[in-house]
Amino acid sequence: MKDLLVLGGFGIIVFIIFANVFGGDDDIQRGMTSLEDGPSYEELPSEPPKKDIVDGITGSEPSDPAEMISDHFPLLDTIQTDNGLSKVYVTREFKVPELADLFSQTLKPREISEFDGNKQVLIYSDQFIILKKSEQKPDVVFIELANEQFVRNHYSPGFFNGLLTYAILNRMFNSNNWAERQQERCRSAGGCYGGYSMNGGYNAGKTGTFRGSSIRGGGPGAGK
After folding, report:
1. How are beta strands 127-133 and 119-123 bridged, if at all?
2. Which of 42, 64, 130, 189 is buried most, with the most CB atoms less than 10 Å from its CB?
């Protein structure tokens, strides 16, 4: 009897693991987890007043999105993988649509999405600016600056539903059916990246879980 109970308990555990890995939504989206000693909401970098940020950006002539963002917002996290780079900046001074308007008026993007689901996307030649309101702290907005390689290899196609058509993404990634292929990779890996989250998790399949490097610095007020 005791052996049967042990076997039964073991069977339940195997079933739960199997369901978590292979069941559920075909297009799982996950956030990015920071390291244990990484950024926290209690330790967000300080920022200048909103007016100073706006004046600084509108009075500048940035050559690319990296310069436009890094010169005016504090760096929160850096995500480096073998398949791309993403840097996450943060602000509590702006709403997502305000940032999208400010960035697009300062440096014209190739594509700009509608505001939907508390997020908005701007595409430049080989960079994506992905603006996303924090799910845990509504007054916090993440400004993710990811290269084309990172988005193509890690993002879930479902993240862009309501934002960008797959035709636009296919054109950016020089692909005929990026969404279909990426969705299959997401299923095989047990999930794909669904935007930065300080309390989220990202399953990269066989490569294990990759995390933000917790590299901080850059931007006004950093380290204060």
Report:
1. antiparallel
2. 130
